[in-house]
Design a protein that fits this description.
The chain is an alpha+beta fold. It contains 11 helices and 17 strands. Helix content is 30%, strand content 33%.
């Protein structure tokens, strides 16, 4: 569906709501992005059908040259901006800025209750970014890779060896879907465990509210806590998804809340066991965690679990700006 044409650009840019028929064009435009780790090919079809989300395409002479998604969350008060990309041959021409401004104007017109926009970024912020956005939270990103057929059969033996070496597994409990609100909406959990009272699920920041838990309930997520009564550590695993790196590759993203390294290690092992049936043979695994935990967890993943560090320390920023 066509949204608008901007004749002020040369040639004019046309904006349209994404549909199935543009999928191959979006893939071609995105080829090589994120070094083969792009999430959009696995999310595109769900995104264009998701209630509350509008995927906007920028077109020039009928061809797709840009994309940005806007998802209305927080009971209609927040616009979550995701997926921004511009075709390589059109970069440096101001397309991204025009697309972003169009989406901001669209939100104001169609969703007047929205007060702020939020987004996550993994690159270094400059002075102009700090003028434009408020930093709501910051997490370290630990990216490791492993072979599922090699790791999973030896995981029990690995844990036994760790215990013999002095490692003490901490309690780790799986939350049933019906139990999630009672735990996550606890005031102590929101204020003491979540980063700035925000559930960051696979790059998507949600305030800890009943309405947002309703959105997350559709995603087949896996919540672990150290204990159901006043937990101090929680991990949230997103269902593994395919990536362009190759047919036998998948991404496993695990968000970590809390700062106790022993409990985080125990929950990581538990999450790997739980996700095993869904994994493809080769796995890229991202852990998003408190920056102070990164070095110890990187050492644990490599030395104790035999995972390979795929990238040095980087950071995930949760940013917010007024609409």
């Amino acid at each position: 569906m066509k949204l608008e044409t901007r004749p002020s650009t040369d040639p004019p840019l046309e904006f349209a709501v994404a549909t199935e028929k543009e999928f191959e064009e979006v893939l071609a435009m995105s080829k090589g992005i994120y070094g083969g780790l792009d999430y959009l090919p696995s999310r595109y079809h769900a995104w264009i059908r998701e209630p509350g989300r509008t995927v906007v395409l920028a077109k020039k002479n009928g061809a797709v040259i840009g994309l940005q998604s806007v998802y209305i969350i927080d009971a209609g008060e927040t616009a979550l901006v995701e997926g921004l990309r511009v075709a390589p041959w059109e970069r440096g021409k101001g397309v991204a800025g025009v697309l972003q401004r169009f989406c901001a104007e669209m939100v104001k017109e169609k969703h007047p209750s929205v007060k702020v926009s939020r987004l996550t970024r993994d690159d270094k912020l400059g002075p102009r970014d700090f003028q434009k956005y408020r930093v709501i939270a910051k997490q370290g990103i630990l990216l490791v890779r492993f072979s599922a057929p090699e790791l999973l059969p030896r995981l029990d033996a690995t844990v036994r060896a760790l215990v013999e070496g002095g490692f003490r597994p901490e309690p780790s409990e799986l939350l049933l879907e019906s139990e999630v609100p009672g735990v996550v909406l606890q005031e102590s959990f929101r204020k003491e465990v979540l980063p700035n009272q925000t559930i960051i699920q696979d790059w998507q920041p949600f305030k800890a509210t009943e309405s947002n838990l309703g959105l997350l309930r559709q995603k087949e997520l896996c919540w672990l806590v150290d204990r159901k009564a006043r937990p101090t550590v929680a991990t949230l695993a997103t269902r593994p998804f395919a990536i362009p790196l190759g047919e036998d590759w998948c991404y496993l993203n695990i968000d970590v809340f809390g700062r106790d390294p022993a409990r985080v290690k125990s929950q990581l092992i538990h999450q790997l066991r739980l996700q095993a049936p869904r994994l493809r043979p080769r796995v890229m695994c991202q852990l998003f965690l408190d920056p102070a935990l990164w070095l110890e967890m990187a050492t644990f993943c490599q030395a104790a679990l035999g995972l390979e560090l795929a990238k040095d320390y980087t950071e995930q920023y949760l940013l917010e700006a007024d609409i």
